[in-house]
Structures are given as structure tokens and as C-alpha cells.
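As the next step, I wrote out a protein sequence along with its fold in C-alpha cell form, included below for the reader:
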Amino acid sequence: DYMNEHQVLIAPTTLIRSFNRAVDLLQSAGLLIEQGANVRLSHESYFDHLFASTFATTGRRVRDWLTSSEQHLFRRTQVRQILSYLRAENPTSERYLDALDDALNGEGVRYLVKDAAARWLSGVAGATQKEFEIVSRLDQENYSSLLRRQILSGKDWFPVLVSNGQIQSWLRSEEKQQVSLAVGWVADAFRDHPELALEEIERFWKAAADPLPILKRIFGRAAPGENATPLADFGRRLINDPKFELQIEASNDAAGDFLLWSKDKPGSAIELLALKYQRYMKDNPPCDLFVGNG
């Protein structure tokens, strides 16, 4: 309680001297270190775990706790630990979702705390639709676009954005920023969720009136992960599409030189590079590099 209240990792030894041999026993167990008139836990993670587990049993709202005192940097780690502890117990529980909503959307909660919660949430495994709904409410907050982008850029958020239709909606949006974010998320997903990324590409290709400009941007940003087959399939179809205007001269061309591929997937890189030049020379016979122009 003293450490939490004062937002420090030390406490006066007198607080536990009344417990018989407490200091000696805790030091022998490697849990406590005595420093002059103070004691501290041997590792900060002990405090984080003890505080989070205790807080979880109180039923107190995270928002009320945070706004009851100054919110210094000390609170960042505490909030992350509370959320981690509650999510590990049950990621769909009302207790956890309320705590997450408080940390991200709570009135009076400082940005430094929201930022800590956002960074933590971006890395969770198996993100859920309920968590997405809480993230969506950030639209009404200052700096919301930064926090929202940070969270949804996490690799395990892509399946959620696919399942709730957000990727398709943003790819077809009239707002350039939403399109740009969706382009980046689909391109990045070819590393961690390549099959799912290709499925989203196929949906967009069939539904959009003029999909090629956006598909070109996605392919230009994408790089293969361990499984390069879906991205290579996307590349073949894009290069072979008769409506796709191939420009060899452009360094940022969607079917570029595959520099991002060459280290880990040289076979796919060579195949697509050859396909690119074959298509270009077919469309531009006077520019054939191997046949004289007369």
C-alpha cells in the first residue's frame, strides 16, 4: 500500500518490523532487500504482480484509482500489469473489459497511461471483437488516431479486422488516411497471416470497381514471411492482369525489383522479376532488351 500510494519501490522498514522476523525471513527467501531504514522488493516484477493480484480482488474501477492521485510514470507499469493479470484470468470478463475501457477511454486518465495501455494491447495474442469495440471508442478522444493506429498495427489484430469487415470497408473508404492504413495493414499481414491477407485481396479484387491502384500499393509495400506462396501468387496475378500498367522505370513500381524478397526468398524473387520483364517486353516490343529494333 505504501509503495502504491507514494508511487515508489521502497518502503520504511518500520512498516513490517512489527511482524516477527519478517525482514529476515523475506531476505533469506530472496524476496526483500534491506537498505538502511528502508526495504525494497528484490525485483520490480514482484511488486507489479502483488499489486495487480491484490487490485483485482478489490473490485475498484481502474479509472477511479488512477484519478484519485497524481498519474506519474510509475502508473504505466501498474496499469499494464493489471490489464495483463485480468486478461490472463478471462479476456472476455466484464472486469477486464471495464478495466481496459477505463485505461483507454477513462475521463481524467492521462495520455501517458493511455499510451502504456495501447502499447500493451497492440501485442496481445488473440485480440477479440470486444476489445476492438473499446478501441473504436478512441475516436472521440484526443490523440485517438495515434493510439488507435498503434493498437491495430499489432500482428494479432489483423484477423479481428478481417472478421468484422473493417479491412474491406477501409480499403473502399473515401478517406485517404483510412485507405492508407488499410493498405499498410494488409501488406504487413503477408508476414504473419499470409493466407488471410490473400483472401482479403481476393475479396477486394472482386468487389471494388477499380481495385488495381490500391492493389499495386499493397504489393509494393508487402514482403514475404516464412510462407511466401500467397504473396507470390498475388504477384503473379497482378503482373499478368492485362489492366495492370507495368512501368519498369518506376523505382516504386508495385512489381519492383523484389529487394525485400531477395535475402530469404530468392527463388520467388527471381521468378517474379522474370515474369515482370517478360510481361513488359511483350507489351512493349520496341523496348525488347534482347532483340534489336532494326
About this structure: The chain has 18 helices and three strands.
